[in-house]
Structure prediction request, 418 residues.
Amino acid sequence: MNSEELQAYRETLKCSFKDLDAVFEDCMIEALSELSAQGIKDYLEGASLVCMIGRGFEPVLVYLEEMPQIVARLGEPILCNISQCVWKMSRTPNGNSILPFLQSLPEAARRLGSEEQMQHYIDVVFDLMEKTTGSIHGFHTTIPSPGLPDFLNQVPYLLNQLSIEGLRNWVEYGARNYKSNPDRQRDYFSLQSADSRAMIQRERHGTLFADHERKLDLYLHGFWQDPEYLVPYSLAFDELRKPVPYYDSLGIRIPDVYDDRAGIRGIDRYRAVLAHIAAHRRWTTALIADNLSPFQRIAVETLEDSRVELLLMRRFPGLRKTFMALHPIPVEDACDSESESCIRHRLAMLSRAILDPDHSYANSDLLDCVSSFHALLTGSDSSTKEISDLAISYIARTRRQSDLLPNIRFEDTEIDYR
Prediction:
């Protein structure tokens, strides 16, 4: 970057603070190493917007210094998002919270690890701001939130203790109970009150992805030579459809926290998920499923999941204990086909029978399919196509009219590491 280019960038940044000239070149060198041309444009426009809010030089400095590394973690769309958040906050009485908000972002980006999670954090901040900002006679908001600056100053500590769901619950408790008591509200959000610390203990649970990210990265690299990026998501913000682990072109998506379950530690649940996904990436091939019915598709998915897990357990026998503990054991006659759809129940039983040689199921169609499945994998890895054909034939033999009933049995059918 020569002096003419630097001057052009400086002219693009609409900010007249003299202190800016001393740090601008260093900020641009880092920004150019992390951002695209469009990213640089958004970066400078965002800094100009932060400068326009009239809160002095420091918010602009924090934005310029910290945003390149935040973008490296979360992606360039976060630039416009943050500058607009600062502008929105400046239109309220909470201008004193803008600097601590910006200062909280680097640790939030490091702990949360994805743009989606960061948006959940921003939603928590603005929800607290809206609930605790006061007004006179119930009209225009004129009294700043007493607890918001204290909360933002505590965010690095809080995100090291809680998942984003736990943080939301902790914030909602304080906003609900101390909305009309400014002193108690400040005590709560500055972690000075006993109930504030008690709520942290109540909401702190499970194994946080952020605490074990490097360990899980090494696991993925060491066992699978897979360099894929790990992207956490929260289970707390989608009430209608709970997300499940998956992978796409942007990385492997996994929950931000796992509790211990069925005697399996949270960290081992993470390992089970990553092993399962890595196995698909190694052994599963793409199929054209346009001509498959929904029942055929779910059967193909179930049997292909079982195939890659069987291959996993051959290579890493220690995974058997984890998979067997986490895999549900549906009771054979628990589903009433007269009143509910049993398609998920039958496939969960089939999956269990394939993986567990000590299963107790007696259904002849299930046993025939299990036998055919193991025959395909005797002395070979089989293939996605062979397993697909077997799954389709199983559905053809076992499908019932009641499978179309809207009342679907879900009990003991969810395999949460898949």
Q: What stands out?
A: The chain is about 60% helix and 5% strand. The chain has three domains: 3-161, 206-283, 286-418.
